[in-house]
Write a structure and sequence with these properties.
Blueprint: H1 2-8, E1 13-19, H2 26-38, E2 42-48, H3 51-60, E3 65-69, E4 78-92, E5 102-104, E6 112-116, H4 121-131, E7 140-144, H5 148-156, E8 162-165, E9 176-183, E10 186-187, E11 189-196, H6 203-215
Parallel strand pairs: 1-2, 1-3, 5-9, 6-7
Antiparallel strand pairs: 3-11, 4-8, 4-9, 4-11, 9-10
């Protein structure tokens, strides 16, 4: 009976979280640790995949909640805004742009920018096109079908530069230097959000969402 009551209160059960950001450090890692400390009896399963596959799994009920960049709802799911992270540029050591502490979007004009076709590469590309509206101000863009780790190895080898999220810089890649990316208004940011189906009645999901609301309260209107 006690187990049944614990499950109904969202203190016992199973929760499946989908994501494609780094777990090495940053907000997602802190959030998972916080949840484990609050609800030690909830079994959490993490699934790392692309946005398309995560969306399909959410629709099919294979995943309870998905955490991705951006604020666009996935299908008919509900959405909650979470944290934001700075966008930084990954440079090979000794690169001319490492001489200063910050890099501006317009400084990328004469560079070769390596972009992954995997998430969140397409979204970073959209941000780039927004910041550099004129085609003449944009760098040469080369697209690769590869992971972040392999992309960073290409940067370290001098094949170009790349744009990553702040949390990605906690992974140790040799031969790299990171610089904050700015425009005239200051640092550039990418936002994260949680998505879930409104008909998902998993109590473990309800307790997880309540924790998110406490950590990232909606701004007062």
């Amino acid at each position: 009976m006690e187990s049944a009551h614990s499950a109904s209160r969202g203190e016992l059960g199973r929760l499946v979280i989908g994501f494609y950001t780094s777990l090495s450090a940053g907000y997602l890692r802190a959030m998972i640790i916080d949840h484990a400390q609050r609800f030690p009896q909830i079994q959490v399963r993490m699934i790392e995949s692309s946005r398309t596959r995560l969306t399909t799994a959410l629709r099919n009920g294979a995943i309870d909640v998905v955490i991705v960049t951006g604020q666009t709802p996935l299908l008919d799911s509900r959405i909650m805004s979470l944290w934001t992270e700075r966008i930084v540029v990954a440079l090979p050591k000794g690169h001319r742009l490492t001489r200063g502490e910050t890099v501006y979007w317009t400084d990328l004009k004469d560079e070769t920018l390596l972009i992954s076709r995997r998430d969140p590469g397409p979204e970073i590309q959209d941000i780039l096109l927004t910041k550099l509206a004129s085609p003449g101000d944009r760098p040469k863009m080369l697209f690769h079908e590869m992971s972040l780790g392999n992309m960073m190895h290409l940067v370290g080898a001098g094949f170009g530069v790349s744009l990553v999220r702040e949390s990605d810089t906690d992974v140790n890649f040799s031969g790299l230097t990171y610089r904050e990316l700015r425009d005239g208004m200051g640092p550039s940011w990418v936002g994260y959000s949680a998505h879930w189906r409104s008909d998902n009645d998993n109590p473990a999901l309800a307790s997880f969402l309540k924790m998110l609301e406490e950590r990232y309260p909606s701004p007062a209107v």
